[in-house]
Amino acid sequence: MTNIPVTTWSLEQTAPGDLLPAAAPEGDVRIVRAEVPSPEFSRFLYASVGQDIGWVDRLGWSYAEWREYLSRPGVETWVAYDQGTPAGYVELDPQDDGVVEIIYFGLLPAFRGRRIGGHLLSYGTARAWDLADRWPGRARTKRVWLHTCSKDGEHAMANYQRRGFKLFDTKVEEEPQVASPGPWPGA
Fold this sequence. Notes:
Strand order of the largest sheet: 2-3-4-5-6-1-7
Protein name: GNAT family N-acetyltransferase
Order of helices and strands: EEHHEEEHHEHE
Radius of gyration: 16 Å
Number of helices: 5
Largest sheet: 7 strands, mixed
Structural class: alpha+beta
Helix content: 10-25%
Organism: Streptomyces broussonetiae
InterPro entries: Acyl_CoA_acyltransferase, GNAT_dom
Low-confidence stretches: none
Number of strands: 7
Distance between the termini: 21 Å
Pfam families: Acetyltransf_1 (PF00583)
Shape: globular
């Protein structure tokens, strides 16, 4: 198996005022929280968004692992729909001391380049900042962070920076080069 160098950048916002929202795209784009934990739907989003950029770490999760993760208090999945069709998602993972990680964010390939990503990232980041309003007992959000890497889409880093995220760490590591699994075998 061949290894490739992968650069991972970690970015953060440390105050709600850091968010620089993108304009909403034209058309019928709505963002809705998936309030019922659904391993099937979350796996569909994960596999479909990440199929061409090397998201493989959750592909081996069992139904029970998906359910356990999605049922954790404060974990939220916000889905963008374009004319009723799932276009992408942002997944929030609350951590200790008022920290929320945008653990996954992206669009299905057919919806990239249509100005949906900036809007979805803006909306998801705002929901990270107000997460405690929906989860009594959780600490108010003090920091929102995420990471992106050199395998992600070519516009990912610029989108994060335009939304007000600031770089705080960079790492380069060797990773095994894996073939894109596609959304289904052979895709």
